[in-house]
Design goal:
This protein is mainly α. Among the domains are: about 140 residues, no CATH class; about 35 residues. The protein is built from 41 helices and four strands. The strands form two sheets. It has a two-stranded antiparallel ribbon with strand order 1-2. It has a two-stranded antiparallel ribbon with strand order 3-4. Strand 3 and strand 4 form a beta hairpin.
């Protein structure tokens, strides 16, 4: 349907469709399964439409569309235009370009004496075929213009006569193309598939030109064999860099899409715009086209996938159309798969909401991005078209169901639980087990649900073909939600770790499940539900660090570093390291921090017209922080302890996110602190309340003001245990402020100031730095630092711009400040009272002299007595 004529336009439509999820600004946070646990566990199981459409049929050969060929990392995909010219010299390539501009095929052939036979024959044939197409197209476009002008074109100029007149060109082209196929395989193979493809196009042109019913029937009957020829050649090893063999399925399918009364050709626009042409296609022909498009999609052909999408959407809009196709197994599976993946239910009684995709901006609708009534959200009702589809297939009898597990999922979604149960009982697949788990939860049979989930995820990450890899991950995620609700916290973390780790290795295509934040749910359990020791035991037993990759070359740009990805295991280990630091267990935290030479951790800045990279050394930061705290707590002198507190404060302020930041609220390390929300259970940490105002007091009363109250508010809803709430409250950040480590830095500033002489430079400098740090985050605390300086500190030369220009504290001077200050006081007082000081000095001197004289006489007298004896 999307043949080469319309491929560019079809690609433009696809781009426009994809553009709806792009936002001008602001973040998009992936879906967290724990946000709506009931919705997660009751949502409809399904696969993406791309996955299902590519498995409607099983290919009987190894052919792949070019877009489906996997390109090894670091390599570029093959350019088809260059591939068809492989082995030719520049002179031969120039000759082929000149041949394409020739007046006719004979002239082109005469120019190609230096070109290999197969390339020469094909280029000459292509010239004649191109002229034949152009002449017919020109006559067809001119005919409506003549009619509109009220003129009658001569018989020789009618479209029919012009197209019939191209037969000599077609015959000459056909002869040369057949010569290519007659060549030995060694010389003809490079263009054999292209020749067979063009012969099929010529056969199609002749069928379009015919006027006699018998002749037309004969030409039409020969078309399938003509389209099958390039596929047979490619399957037997002929080169096909352009993917013409797989494309021929779509070209052949197009021959069945015509108005059964007028013969008018239909295409994808007929279905997209619901034109009379589409409605006039015979149901048998439509089934044939669906089968061919399914063959194309099964070999990775995107054009076939898009064609199936247009046909399915058009069919589901009308009950009669559905009834005319569901007796065909491939068509039936197509409709069910499309209904599950690409049509939503009805939101607030708006029929158009069935086609609205919310996945790009609203996660509340679940993993598919479309409204899903099974999730139990208010205001969503089953889509009548899907109800009708299920009922129509059910009425044909369960023995005529194609893909019972898929239909079971759709029956579950529209509320036909009895029919869904009957279908899954007949099917043994991972998808059927997934549906069974949902049905068990609806019955309240948790044990059966646990067993069904286990069966569905058996062999993870490899499951059977009923599920694509992204859905196998989703099952693991749902297992985690159910397990968490049963109080099995470590097991729940394990399921999410498995899902998130698997996500490291597979991507999510634009038609697949919405990006699910398994890592975010994993971080919630690791950070807020498990105790630190439980998490440490889990990491030690299951989460090894990944190998440090080699650093890019010294002259490599930032992109080379961004291409180095850390794993889920690395992220979980780093989370544990920061949690241990918060608990004061810094020595234990060191091995869980990334290695200091790991090139995956660095920062970039633009300096002097160049991009400058700085290696982040987390372990060194942690060791420095530990040393600062050790000095603060164990140094012998008050001044040295103050120096330690200030060093710890500086590290906490400047590197607190890296050292001790919460992965989620209140710091949001997972998004580098860029937003105050987006992951975890607490959406946004409340701003500090100015309790000095009546408005502040009133707003404070409306906000839960204890960890327990916040746990109740953040963990509202079913599938949450009392113990989880208790653990959540116990693991709350203290203090509970955004960038909580800045408050810790401020606390350390207070401790540093407490250990310094109030009138020392260091005292003022420490409080100045604290004022600077807190003036934006906590203005009230910044004012407190300044007021303490004014009250207790001495005048300093940076007192005017206090809190903006702060020097380094002089701790060496502070260490001798008391003695130095006493000496300065003596000198000052002596200067102010010179006469009194002189008199006192004389009296002291006289006293010293008198005392000396007395001692001298006494000692001398003892010596005389001693000699007389």
């Amino acid at each position: 349907m999307l043949n080469r004529k319309y491929f560019a336009l079809g690609g433009g439509i696809a781009l426009l469709a994809g553009a709806v999820i792009v936002h001008a600004c602001g973040p998009f946070f992936p879906l967290q399964l724990l946000d709506n646990r009931a919705g997660t566990l009751s949502g409809t199981p399904n696969n993406s439409f791309a996955y299902e459409a590519s498995r409607l049929v099983t290919p009987g050969d190894h052919l792949l569309a070019p877009e489906a060929v996997r390109v090894p990392a670091g390599q570029q995909p093959v350019d088809p235009a260059k591939a068809v010219l492989a082995g030719l010299s520049p002179e031969q390539i120039a000759t082929l370009a000149a041949m394409a501009k020739a007046a006719d095929g004979d002239a082109a052939y005469a120019m190609g004496t230096g070109v290999p036979a197969t390339q020469r024959l094909y280029a000459a044939a292509d010239v004649d075929f191109g002229h034949a197409l152009a002449s017919c197209a020109a006559a067809s476009s001119a005919s409506p213009a003549s009619s509109a002008a009220g003129t009658t074109a001569p018989a020789a100029a009618t479209p029919q006569s012009a197209c019939a007149a191209r037969e000599p060109l077609l015959s000459r082209a056909s002869a040369r193309l057949n010569e290519i196929l007659a060549l030995p395989a060694s010389s003809g193979a490079p263009r054999a598939v292209a020749a067979a493809t063009e012969l099929a196009a010529i056969a199609q042109a002749r069928a379009d030109d015919c006027t006699g019913s018998d002749a037309c029937a004969s030409l039409t009957a020969a078309l399938p064999a003509a389209y099958a020829k390039p596929r047979a050649l490619a399957a037997n090893g002929a080169a096909d860099p352009e993917g013409l063999a797989v494309a021929s399925f779509g070209d052949e399918a197009l021959t069945y899409l015509h108005d059964k009364k007028t013969g008018k050709q239909c295409d994808y626009r007929s279905f997209l715009n619901d034109t009379p042409c589409a409605a006039a296609i015979a149901s048998g022909n439509l089934k044939q086209a669906i089968g061919l498009y399914a063959q194309q999609a099964a070999r990775g052909g995107n054009s076939g996938l898009q064609s199936l999408r247009f046909i399915a959407a058009w069919t589901l809009a009308d009950k009669a159309r559905v009834a005319s196709l569901i007796d065909d197994p491939v068509a039936q599976r197509l409709l069910v798969s499309y209904a599950l993946a690409r049509e939503g239910d009805i939101v607030k009684d708006r029929p158009e909401s069935a086609f609205e995709y919310y996945g790009g901006y609203d996660n509340s609708y679940g993993p598919t991005g479309y409204a899903d009534t099974a999730r139990g959200d208010k205001g969503i009702k089953p889509n009548p078209s899907l109800v009708s589809l299920v009922e129509a297939i059910r009425q044909r009898g369960i023995d005529h169901v194609a893909g019972a597990d898929r239909l079971a999922a759709l029956a579950y979604r529209v509320g036909r639980y009895d029919f869904a149960s009957e279908l899954v009982a007949r099917e043994h697949s991972a998808l059927a087990s997934w549906v069974s788990a949902k049905l068990a939860l609806r019955r309240g049979d948790t044990a059966a649900a646990v067993e069904a989930y286990a069966q569905a995820s058996k062999g993870f990450p490899a499951v059977d073909s009923s599920l694509e890899p992204a859905r196998a991950q989703l099952i693991k995620g749902e297992q985690a939600v159910l397990t968490l609700s049963r109080g099995q916290y470590v097991e729940a973390l394990g399921y999410l770790f498995d899902a998130a780790s698997c996500q490291d290795n597979i991507g999510v295509n634009d038609d697949s499940v919405s990006d699910v934040a398994y890592g975010s749910d994993m971080a919630y359990i690791a950070e807020r539900v498990l105790t630190t020791d439980e998490l440490k035991r889990f990491v030690d037993s299951r989460v090894p660090a990944s190998a440090v990759p080699p650093a890019p070359l010294s002259d490599a740009g930032a992109d080379a570093y961004y291409a180095l990805h850390h794993t889920t295991a690395d992220a979980l280990r780093y989370l544990l390291a920061r949690r241990l630091v918060r608990d004061g267990r810094i020595d234990e935290a060191l091995p869980y921090f990334p290695a200091d030479d790991d090139p995956r951790y660095g920062s970039f800045s633009w300096e002097g017209g160049h991009t400058i990279r700085k290696q982040l050394q987390f372990r060194k930061l942690a060791r420095d922080y530990a040393a600062a705290l050790d000095e603060a707590q164990h140094a012998w002198t008050r001044t040295n302890r103050a120096r330690g507190w200030f060093a710890a404060a500086t590290l906490a302020k400047q590197s607190g996110m890296e050292l001790m930041g919460y992965e989620q609220g209140p710091d949001f390390h997972d998004i580098d602190g860029a937003f105050a929300g987006g992951s975890g259970r607490s959406g946004v940490v409340s701003a500090r309340v100015d309790r000095a105002s009546d408005a502040g007091a009133a707003s404070a009363a409306a906000v839960p003001d204890t960890p327990e109250a916040r746990a109740e508010a953040d963990l509202a809803g079913p599938f949450v245990t009392v113990d989880e709430k208790r653990r959540y409250a116990a693991s709350e950040s203290r203090p509970l402020t955004r960038f909580h480590y800045r408050e810790i830095a401020a606390d350390y500033v207070v401790k540093a100031a407490d250990g310094l002489p109030p009138r020392s430079q260091a005292f003022a400098a420490v409080l100045c730095r604290g004022t600077d740090w807190m003036r934006n985050d906590d203005p009230a605390r910044a004012r407190g630092f300044y007021q303490r300086y004014v009250k207790e500190g001495a005048y300093v030369d940076f007192g005017g711009p206090f809190g903006t220009l702060c020097p380094e504290p002089d701790f060496r001077a502070a260490a001798t400040f008391t003695y130095t200050q006493a000496w300065h006081d003596v000198k000052r007082d002596a200067g102010r009272n010179k006469k009194r000081v002189a008199l006192i000095g004389l009296l002291i001197a006289a006293g010293v002299i008198g005392m000396g004289a007395w001692r001298y006489r006494r000692v001398k007298g003892r010596r005389v007595e001693g000699r007389s004896k």
